[in-house]
Queue: 2 jobs
Job 1
Amino acid sequence: MSQYLFEPPAVVTVPVEGQDEIFPVRRILCVGRNYAAHRREMGGDDRDPPFFFAKPADAIVSPGRDVAYPPMTSNLHHEIELVVALKAGGKAVPVERALDLVFGYAVGVDLTRRDLQNAAKDKGQPWEASKGFDESAPISAIKPWSGPAPQGRIQLTVNGDVRQDASVADMIWATQEIIAEASKLWTLAAGDLIYTGTPEGVGPLRSGDRVEGQIDGVGKLAFKVA
Ligand code: MN
């Protein structure tokens, strides 16, 4: 029997509200431009549909942990997002059955090196360096959930000042559509997390900033940029 050359990487996990079992993360998909007002603030065309990109699982920042200001950027941006946590997977999942895959929801922040993203856009280059860097995916505990997806208020403050304040109901692709669309492109599986896109009001963070986010009925997240 073969042996590992070195200790394999640890499984990334997220705590679950109200229970001891922890959620093992398989991978992280993210949706871009899923709110019309944010698509406009990013200079997008109103007819462009949302799209997917990804972060590595180990970009997760567990609840209660702070985030080090990342290297190679001077324009780190916050993007508050509803996160879907899957307990089951599949491919080509019909919209009507998509919510059956959901274990629960969390509050997440899609941290973005905006300067690197803008440079990549200008050159037609990929987004990994601007989106999939270390500690780029802070998350709250996951709240177990059944029934219709969250629709409530989504809000982010920096040092107590409201920066993003919108409604999850304004997503262009609703949660069940996001799952169905993703399953056309990839085989989804238990442990997948999907960051569902951010509303308008994204902006820069500085060292020392305290970031707090919340989504009605889902939970709260807080971290400091160290
Ligand atoms: Mn985002």
Note: Helices lie at 36-41, 95-98, 114-123, 128-131, 175-185.
Job 2
Amino acid sequence: MQIQLETKPFRGIETDALVSYVFEEKDPVQGRIAEVDQAAAGLIKKLAAGGELTGKSLEFTLIHAPAGLKAARLLLVGAGKREQFNSATVRKIAGAALRYLKGKSVKNFAFAVREGDATVDSAQAFAEGAITANFETDKYKTDKKDRKEIEIASLAGYSDAEPMAGEKGIAKGRTIAEAQNFTRELVNEPSNKLTPRLLAERAQAMANQSGLAVEILDEKKIAELKMGALLSVAQGGPEPPRMIVVTYSPANPKPGGPVIGLVGKAVTFDTGGISIKPADGMEKMKYDMAGGATMLGVMRALAALKPNVKVICVVPATENMPGGTAQKPGDIQTAMSGKTIEVLNTDAEGRLILADGVHYAKQLGATHLIDAATLTGAIVVALANVNVGVFGSDQAFTDKLLASAKVTGEKMWQMPIDDEYREFIKGSFADIQNIGSGKGGGAITGAMFIKEFTGDSPWIHLDIAGTAWSDDAKPWLAKGPTGVALRTLVHLVLSY
Ligand code: BES
Ligand code: ZN
Ligand code: ZN
């Protein structure tokens, strides 16, 4: 799909569909839409008067052969209340319009921003919305003859804007959205097509193409470095683990500046191990590597956007299998940090591999840590599939991330990590244990476990178990992998 700027005035744009938006207010036919309405002999006003066009969020009004326009169709999308309108709305309605038109076999469309909305941010949001909406999960379907394709998505309404605003926004949005789709592509892979070794190969290829430094630690190197927590999870099956390290170094780093460590859980399949999961729904555990895929996607975007801060990405990758060599409940493991862990439940494996991941990131020089993980079913109980669970040891750092989430339209909600919760993971026979003792607060317990390995570095944990995968399609996104948290993390790093 090509994304481009269209400089002609609305009436003269030759396209399969001219798309714009209306607000939910007394008279939704105003400004540029009123101008279009005049050309169309008052048809839009009539639809509004009849109650068919209200501006309610994601309401679609499709007009064929609109009078006074060169376009074959006019699509008006409801943008909701004007006061709540921002670039997140643009992203959503641009994506929803693309999927709506694609469903009708339309090949190209022009999205026209309204008066005053021709900003860099709108253009970025348009590109992000369109490119992420265009992503499909049909890679393994052999019969693609009914596949519909949008060929060109144009952005209009920028002729009076600062020159380059449109181009600049589109370029940035394209970089970020393509990175998000890269993440989603990885998350969509079934575990037989994406083992830890294959994930490492994909990371290596991405790093080489993007000009990032990459190092893949194999099982021998992982053992030499005494990453006992990661190894304990990997020992349950024949697939060897990998520790993936991708590094971005700015051209002129600030001496003494922060080094951001991004650590992502990549369990390419989580059976639960000996504490095995129920069969029903287990197939979804192919997305248990979404945290790792997210961090790799962030690196891909950063390589192009070139922030002035060093970023080290560490992705521990393994399967969690219940083979004859698997670890068993009660086994005691020694993490890379030297801490001993009593593994009371082999299904709480994400925190084990992250223990070695965050410790290694620190050893490599990270001063600020962020991990992303599909860590707990408990976060789904707490926040459903709406908000990412955010846990932070440093409020200023956490506030910075929450602000980035707001700007990029990703829903995140902070959870507590008071000292009282430390009790939950106090060990009986080892330093710590990997699950709590049945007192609830499962997502917090998982976070407290990871915190043990972060020392006094500012640290944020993102539990994306409820949000990395969507069981139903959204008007602006296919069902399946969402690529959540990538945009927030890219924005956060760029803010340094
Ligand atoms: N990968 C799961 C968490 C998960 C659950 C991800 C649902 C996506 C959707 C994780 O490894 C796990 O099994 N966690 C256990 C922890 C428990 C044993 C303390 C859980 O949440 O049940
Ligand atoms: Zn598990
Ligand atoms: Zn897991």
Note: The chain has a mean pLDDT of 97.
